[in-house]
Amino acid sequence: MSLPTRRRVLLGAAAVTGLAGCPGTDGQSDGRDGDADAGATPTDAEPADRELDLREANVVAVAVDRRAGGYRFGVTLHHDDGGEGGYANWWQVETLDGERLDRRELAHPHGTREFTRSATVTVPDGTTCVVVRGHDETHGYGGQAMLVNVETGATAAVRQGSGRASMAGRGCPGG
């Protein structure tokens, strides 16, 4: 292969690799905290032999750490973005009573695979336990949500069915 041809092939491969990371909308970074696709494993609260309904936006892992100005949530969703024309369009953090603290918008489909997106969320003083829920364009809420202890990072998967099940009165994991 000649040098100019090899250079074009390498540049083309670099361009494809750069787009594959999908850091934000239209290939531009959106300034959020460290977006990255990552495979995550289900929590201990979710038996491995139970199948998730991939028509719904399932939260399969949450990593949380304290930052100046709040907590950084790395949320891994699993959804069949390739089916039915809809995709997982956001995830949100809320109190156990259902008050939304923040929402992380998702701008495009990610296929049928796990993917992780991050955002920093302000959690009110005295709040130890929060809920992280996924949402998709076609089915709305549903699938698996995650209870998260922001002090310890412990999580517990909750099957909420096809709606936005109340989490009021639930115990916080690892607390």
Question: In words, what does this structure look like?
Answer:
The chain is mostly beta strands and 175 residues long. It has one domain: Immunoglobulin-like. Helices cover 10% and strands 37% of the residues. The chain is built from 1 helix and 8 strands; from the N terminus they run H-E-E-E-E-E-E-E-E. The strands form 2 sheets. It has a 5-stranded antiparallel β-sheet, with no helix packed on it. Strands 1-2-5 form a 3-stranded antiparallel β-sheet, with no helix packed on it. Strand 7 and strand 8 form a beta hairpin. The longest helix is centred in the N-terminal third of the chain and has 18 residues. The chain is globular. It starts with a helix and ends in a 16-residue tail after the last strand.
What is shown here, in short?
With 175 residues, the chain is mainly β. It is built from one helix and eight strands, in the order αββββββββ.
Describe the SSE topology:
Layout: H1 3-20, E1 58-67, E2 70-80, E3 88-95, E4 100-105, E5 112-121, E6 129-136, E7 144-149, E8 155-159
Antiparallel strand pairs: 1-2, 2-5, 3-4, 3-6, 6-7, 7-8
